[in-house]
Write a structure and sequence with these properties.
The chain has three domains: 69 residues, no CATH class; 94 residues, no CATH class; 85 residues, no CATH class. It contains three helices and 13 strands. The chain is mainly beta and 255 residues long. Strands 1, 2, 3, 4, 5 and 6 form a six-stranded antiparallel beta sheet that branches. The protein has a four-stranded antiparallel beta sheet with strand order 8-11-12-13, with no helix packed on it. It has a three-stranded antiparallel beta sheet with strand order 7-9-10, with no helix packed on it. The N and C termini lie far apart (62 Å). The longest helix has 7 residues.
């Protein structure tokens, strides 16, 4: 619910209540300096909670028609290959923590988490989460629920980029073989894998994983062909460990 429009009475009590504080909370307009101080109304309505101008001089008229929204806290882990190399893509960042080292952090944001959302250190104030610590994007995995839900980068301006929801996977069975010429003649064992994409079986550009939910990629020694059966023909596909990452399907064909 927004504060009153211009021409209507407005008070510190109203401004406090809109910001989910007690109406009687001590609430100086901006504090004793030109820079709005913590606890002041102007500071309370700083982005991303609201958009009251933070530059002096200040007045109560700046609060007309403003609304206030609380920041949401997100917990996440920063993932790497081994210990030093950031993930290159959404599928890597969604992978199982058993394969990668990580550290747990949290950040705060207002509104909907998406590209362009700014991340903050605290539930109040305007300190950017990565304002000085990051010179290149980092890959993050949301761990709010204990499961992979999304991945994104945060740039040196603390803005979300490359936001993506961890993909839904499709189960299938396949055999493995090192030779593309012989894979189509292999007997299919009951090996269960999971893949991205819209078809029942993987095609070039998909990613293949060992399990559903943890996104643990199928690792191969160099390029390796696999076969999945689909009527009326068997379907062959080749995985690689090289760029853009383990479990990537770099080619496919009908047997």
């Amino acid at each position: 619910m927004a504060l009153p429009a211009p021409g209507n009475p407005i008070s510190a009590n109203m401004i406090n209540v809109e910001a989910t504080r007690s109406g009687t909370t001590n609430a100086p307009l901006s504090g004793s300096s030109a820079t709005p101080q913590t606890g002041s109304l102007v500071k309370l309505y700083a982005p991303p909670n609201s958009n009251v101008d933070q530059t002096a001089p200040h007045s109560y008229s700046e609060f007309y028609s403003k609304s206030w929204s609380a920041r949401t806290v997100k917990y996440y882990q920063r993932y790497y290959y081994g210990t030093t190399t950031d993930f290159a893509n959404v599928y890597d960042a969604c992978s199982s923590s058993a394969w990668y080292s990580s550290s747990t952090y949290n950040f705060y944001y207002s509104g909907t988490l998406a590209n362009g959302t700014v991340c903050y250190d605290a539930a109040s104030g305007s300190t950017l989460e990565f304002a000085s610590a990051v010179t290149s994007p980092i890959s993050l995995k949301d761990t709010t629920t204990g499961a992979s839900t999304h991945t994104c980068n945060i740039n040196s301006s603390s803005e979300i980029t490359n936001y993506a929801v961890c993909p839904t996977l499709t189960a299938f069975s396949a055999s493995g073989e090192t030779s593309g010429a012989s894979v189509c003649g292999e007997t299919i064992p009951s090996n269960s894998f999971y893949h991205t994409g819209v078809l029942a079986y993987p095609e070039s550009g998909d990613w293949v994983f060992q399990n559903n939910g943890n996104y643990q990629p199928v690792l191969t020694t160099g390029s390796q062909w696999f076969k999945a059966f689909t009527s009326p023909n068997a379907w062959a596909f080749r995985l690689q460990n090289a760029t853009p990452g383990p479990g990537y399907v770099n080619s496919d064909n009908i047997c």
